[in-house]
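User: quick one, sequence for these tokens?
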């Protein structure tokens, strides 16, 4: 079998470094054709030495000398459209990933999508780009990888309901009053996953689950009233699919992103791999499930409302959340301000125009400015 070329956008991050661990073991099937990062030139240089990609790109050069590297935001697209790239693993965080997702799909590439934000903000655009260019979107998010594995090619008319699992994050049992002033250190203590800071905060507010519900809507073509969320603190059942005959399938595995990353590369095939610890149901038990507490975690309901509204509302939700989380990470606002910022942006801008890339980016920009003005930062 021909070795497939993989571009990793965001190779220095949590998903990016996870993917390189997987690719290190799968050198017979895949080779690293391109690597990009935002500003960590030292780690990127180390990765480039180890994997010898044909293309290396750094968005912001902090001063190091890197002859031959691509520079600036254009390097994401430059890497994504290279002829020797078959699969683009988009592991960039946030709206910055949108153009690379679109460009790769338009060039007929497989996009292994960790960057859920690009699908949430540009759902219809992303589908159009794939249709036009013959590209293919395969999810890396563990829940969506689970759903894809359970659906296994059956048409959406045979699916009654998706049930997406949520760990509940570090604040699963906290009261609304406690949540209001939860600190950054508290929010960064995720019980089951080690991830980048933005998604870790999203997992604490449950905005991440809202992004995932919208992501599932676009990936699997189901209306929002057939997508539900259940809390599952152990993160072993990665999601459920209920079929029209009442049968329910789930995909299980130890909480490691190596499994969904490998599956997004090999889909629909499965490759022998022994990277993660063996599955031991006794060791992992008990597996428990709880109702999600929507009142305490308003970001989830707000995101689902934005999804149902459609148009540019998901882009407004995403951008307001990104801006608010950035402020929370720098210590400017309180944890409880994050959902308030989202609600305010959706109230003001939820019906902004959509349909084109420019309209979506305008909605994204307006939502960010709205949150900036809200806190006058
Ligand atoms: P991270 O912060 O650890 O890594 C982000 C990567 O993107 C880094 O390599 C960084 O250099 C690059 N980057 C950041 N901003 C950029 C910009 N403006 N332009 C270009 N590159 C930029 O984040 P992560 O946890 O790896 O998450 C990446 C994506 O994967 C997110 O969309 C997240 O929601 C999704 N995801 C992550 C996990 C996980 O376990 N970490 C699980 C599911 C989905
Ligand atoms: Mg997930």
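Assistant:
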């Amino acid at each position: 079998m021909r070795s497939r070329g993989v571009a990793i956008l965001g190779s220095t991050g949590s998903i990016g470094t996870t993917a390189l661990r997987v690719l290190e073991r799968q050198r017979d099937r895949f080779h690293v054709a391109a690597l990009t990062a935002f500003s960590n030139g030292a780690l990127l240089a180390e990765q480039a030495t180890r994997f010898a990609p044909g293309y290396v790109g750094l968005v912001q050069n902090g001063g190091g000398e890197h002859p031959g590297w691509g520079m600036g935001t254009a390097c994401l697209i430059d890497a994504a459209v290279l002829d020797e790239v078959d699969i683009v693993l988009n592991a960039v965080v946030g709206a910055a990933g949108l153009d690379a997702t679109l460009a790769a799909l338009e060039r007929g590439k497989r996009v292994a999508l960790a960057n859920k934000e690009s699908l949430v903000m540009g759902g219809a655009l992303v589908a159009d780009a794939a249709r036009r260019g013959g590209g293919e979107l395969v999810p890396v998010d563990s829940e969506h990888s689970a759903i894809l594995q359970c659906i296994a090619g059956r048409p959406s008319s045979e699916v009654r309901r998706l049930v997406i699992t949520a760990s509940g994050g570090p604040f699963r049992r906290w009261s609304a009053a406690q949540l209001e002033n939860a600190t950054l250190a508290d929010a960064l203590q995720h019980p089951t996953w080690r991830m980048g800071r933005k998604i870790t905060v999203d997992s604490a507010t449950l905005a991440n689950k809202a992004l995932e519900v919208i992501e599932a809507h676009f990936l699997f073509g189901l209306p929002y009233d057939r997508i539900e969320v259940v809390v599952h603190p152990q993160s072993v059942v990665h999601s459920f699919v209920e079929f029209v005959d009442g049968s329910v399938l789930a995909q299980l595995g130890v909480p490691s992103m190596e499994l969904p990353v490998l599956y997004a590369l090999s889909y629909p095939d499965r490759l022998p791999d022994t990277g993660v610890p063996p599955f031991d149901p006794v060791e992992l038990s008990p597996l428990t499930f709880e109702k999600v507490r929507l009142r305490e975690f308003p970001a989830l309901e707000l995101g689902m409302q934005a999804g149902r509204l459609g148009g540019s509302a998901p882009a407004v939700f995403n951008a307001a959340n990104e801006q608010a989380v950035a402020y929370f990470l720098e210590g400017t606002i309180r944890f409880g301000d994050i959902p308030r910022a989202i609600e305010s942006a959706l109230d003001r801008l939820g019906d902004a125009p959509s349909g084109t890339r420019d309209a979506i980016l305008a909605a994204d920009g307006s939502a960010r400015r709205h949150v900036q003005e809200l806190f006058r930062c």
